[in-house]
Structures are given as C-alpha cells and as structure tokens.
Specification:
The chain has 65 residues and is mainly alpha-helical. The chain has 3 helices and 2 strands; from the N terminus they run E-E-H-H-H. Helix 1 (11-19) packs across helix 2 (25-32). It is elongated. The termini are far apart. The model has no long low-confidence stretch (mean pLDDT 95).
Amino acid sequence: MIICHCTAATDREIRRCAQEGRPSCRAVAEASGAGAACKGCVPAIQKLLREVLREHQTAVEHRRG
C-alpha cells in the first residue's frame, strides 16, 4: 500500500527501512524519501515503525523462551 504519495513509497519499503536499522522518520526519509516532502504521511510512517519495533521485540522474547 502506498504510504507516501509524494514519493510513492509503500508500507513494504518503509518496513524494510526499519528492519535494516532505520528506526526513525528522519532515517526513513533519508533512505527512501518518504516523509521528507509534505510530511502528511509521517503519522503513518510512525505507526509502521512502532509495529516493526513490536514485531522485533516479540521475536526476541520468543527466542529467549
């Protein structure tokens, strides 16, 4: 799904940025351009970043057993 209409960045692209170690809107903007122009998508980017962080934390907890 397109999250940033200014750059046509998708949720998958933003998730990939987060998974590659870009956990902030600024880092995502630097990597993909998403959120750098009109900033209307920043709330959606923040939500996706929180989801990726939660998924990562859950995975770590499951590995610890």
